[in-house]
Amino acid sequence: MSELTLTVIRLGLLALLWVFVFSVVGVLRGDLYGTRVLTHGKPKSQPRPAREPVVEAPRAAGPAVRKPTRSSGRRTPRTLTVTDGSLAGTTVSLKEAGVLLGRNPECTLVLDDDFASGRHARIFRRDADWFVEDLGSTNGTFLGSSKLTQPMPVQVGSTLRIGKTVFELRK
User: Which residue, 1, 97, 143, 169, is the most exposed by fewest CB within 10 angstroms?
Assistant: First the structure.
């Protein structure tokens, strides 16, 4: 073999070694610091249809009267509080869009629990009631002492357990 061929092979192997080293460092960085969430500028939004102006009727003097809803008289939860686990004391208000629980950064409440899945469970509103649903997690979601197999309704005082983290629904 000529000296030139041997030098090209050595440089090629050296470049391949550096590519390997950088890929190992990238994997280790991802494991140590978590997933990096990238956003590439503003997402393109679709044009909104023109809205008609909203005209409010004049209010009568006196106390406001609330219309009774289907859930009035029931104890409907408004917040989710972590009572046990690494996030004990954390409170999240329940939003109409629902609350997503898990280890992924996209979740509403990101759990620091080794037994939680990326997208573990969600709490959502259907009609006037709140429900909790397991999203196919590995270790399961428990409502009280029973494991969830389908969406179940929850009320104030209900306890949820995901791994070592315990939640309570409060008013």
Answer: 1
Helical (H) or strand (E) element with 124: strand 121-126
Per the structure block, which two tokens stand in for 74? 């029931």
Tens of pLDDT along the chain (171 residues) come to 799 999 999 999 999 999 999 999 988 887 777 655 555 555 555 555 555 555 555 555 555 544 444 444 456 788 999 999 888 888 998 888 889 999 998 888 898 888 899 999 999 998 888 999 999 898 999 998 899 999 999 988 889 999 999 999 988
CA distances from 123 to 31, 69, 77, 129 (A): 29, 21, 11, 11
Contact 101, 115 (CB under 8 A): no
Q: Are 166 and 83 in contact (CB under 8 A)?
A: yes
> What is d(CA 19, CA 28) in angstroms, rounded to the nearest whole number?
14
N-to-C CA span, the chain: 81
